[in-house]
Design brief:
single chain; five-stranded mixed sheet; 16 strands; 16 helices; binds histidyl-adenosine monophosphate; alpha+beta; eight-stranded mixed sheet; 475 residues
Length: 475
């Protein structure tokens, strides 16, 4: 009796609780109708990378935890609170990458890029993972496009990377972007600044949150990242890094500002901007969109990291980089009515009737595709009327129909959707005829568009002239 009860209990415990199968918190599907925005961002980023001589690099989504502990920094929220960290079956301590910079530097060292022409300029695009509290614009899986230039310390590189970022926003038609800028010094000037900051914070310790009290001991600069109201009030009056830079950092920052002035790039000096990652030295910057809803989310950020290569085991090598949040760019684009990228759609539709025709249609489709003709179809459907209405919906210019008879005769019916006329052609003549008709239609469409444009210009000219004469008459 007892045994039977135990068996029942075991069975019950062994059964898995059924969960509703949906994306997990903070993760999203990007559906086909949203893709034109994402595609536009990818296209712009690829073009900018080519124009500014950045070569593409891809690196694993899973990396050793130590890479980020030593790179991004223990004591940062990204590493201490937000890491998706787990042990593999082999016992390795790994995590999902929360950002790209340490991985790029690891790759730089692992593949001996020090002997390449310096600076080595690399760009990447892909998902990053941070276990943060999700909200609009903040996701646990989000996409970053990043650019890293390793091996050059001249401030002209900092200016160029800022210029590159602004070009991306401009090309995406993202308006009202502001650049926030600061310099947080180097190993020469940071220790004395830290002392000042610690003494300032110690005097106001009671007003700090528990986390910041800890940060005060481990990593005082991180107090600037705290979002708690009482802590932001304390740091608002804190000593500013720019007032305590060494001669080298001061010179570097001044020349960066001169370069930015030279390219008419406006900026806001933000003494409280320190960025939440530990590797930064000298330049740090962030981009915001002046939001209608006062959004606090940066669309991108970056800075200089002159000790990161060394921290990860390499020889002293400077670096500077930037990454933008693609999810946030897309959100702004949607609100801004920016122009997404719509790929070309098929102008030919292939319809079939009956089993023999269905068999032939696969071959015909392949031939058309090989000839560079985009074709739409709904092969699962047998009803001609449904297929024709689908062709209409897709605005197909030509419909190719294969019926039982055509399948036997090795022929295709070509229906011109503009004129409504149709003719039967042997298979081997179809491609030539379709190409000829598509070309003719394209030329016609071009002519019509030109005519339309001329008509608009004439109307505009006439209205302007009318306005002019009315104004002159009034005078
Ligand atoms: P970051 O500021 O942590 O910098 O991230 C760069 C951008 O990624 C942010 O400005 C934001 O647009 C986007 N982002 C960050 N977290 C989220 C999130 N949870 N959801 C949506 N978007 C997010 C870095 O990651 C550095 N690696 C940038 C860098 C490159 N510095 C030098 N080189």
């Amino acid at each position: 009796m007892r045994k039977r009860k135990e068996n029942k209990k075991q069975k019950r415990n062994g059964r898995k609780k059924r969960v509703k199968l949906q994306t997990i918190r903070g993760m999203r599907d990007i559906l086909p109708f949203e893709q034109p925005y994402w595609q536009k961002v990818r296209k712009v980023i690829e073009k900018i990378a080519i124009d500014y001589n950045y070569r593409r690099i891809d690196f694993p989504i899973i990396e050793n935890v130590q890479l980020f502990e030593r790179g991004t920094g223990e004591g940062t929220d990204v590493v201490d609170k937000e890491l998706y960290r787990f042990k593999t079956k082999g016992g390795d301590d790994v995590c999902l990458r929360p950002e790209g910079t340490p991985s790029v530097v690891r790759a730089y060292l692992q593949h001996g890029m020090r002997v390449w022409h310096q600076p080595v300029k690399l760009s990447y695009y892909g998902p990053m993972y941070r276990y943060d509290r999700p909200q609009e614009g903040r996701y646990r899986e989000f996409f970053q496009a990043g650019f890293e230039a390793i091996g050059e310390q001249d401030a002209v590189l900092d200016a160029q990377i800022i210029q590159l970022a602004m070009q991306i926003f401009k090309k995406l038609k993202i308006k009202k972007v502001t650049l926030h800028l600061n310099s947080i010094g180097c190993s020469e000037c940071r220790p004395s600044y830290n002392k000042l900051l610690i003494s300032y914070l110690n005097n106001r310790k009671r007003s700090l949150c528990m986390d910041c009290k800890k940060r005060l001991k481990t990593n005082p600069l991180r107090v600037f990242d705290c979002k708690e109201e009482k802590c932001t009030q304390v740091v608002a009056q804190a000593p500013q890094t720019v007032d305590h830079l060494c001669a080298d950092c001061k010179k570097h920052f001044t020349s960066l500002l001169e370069y930015l002035d030279e390219i008419d790039m406006s900026y806001i000096l933000s003494p409280q901007l320190v960025r939440g990652l530990d590797y930064y030295t000298k330049t740090v910057f962030e981009f915001f969109v002046e939001g209608e809803n006062g959004s606090q989310d940066a669309i991108g950020g970056g800075g200089r990291y002159d000790y990161l290569v060394e921290k990860l085991g390499g020889a002293p090598t400077p670096g500077v980089g930037f990454a933008c949040g693609v999810d946030r760019l897309v959100n702004v684009m949607k609100k801004n009515d920016s122009n997404p990228y719509y790929p070309p759609t098929p102008k030919v539709y292939l319809a079939q009737l009956g089993d023999a025709a269905k068999k032939k249609s696969l071959r015909v489709f392949e031939e058309l595709e090989k000839a560079g003709i985009m074709v739409a179809e709904s092969f699962g459907r047998g009803n001609l009327r449904t297929q024709l209405s689908q062709a209409n919906k897709l605005k197909a210019e030509i419909v190719l129909i294969i019926g039982q008879r055509e399948a036997l005769d090795g022929a295709v019916i070509l229906k011109d959707m503009n004129s409504g006329g149709q003719e039967t052609l042997p298979f081997d003549k179809v491609i030539k005829e379709v190409k000829k008709r598509l070309k003719k239609n394209a030329e016609l469409a071009k002519k019509m568009a030109l005519k339309e444009q001329k008509k608009k210009q004439t109307t505009k000219r006439k209205t302007n002239n009318k306005r002019k004469t009315t104004r002159q008459r009034k005078k």
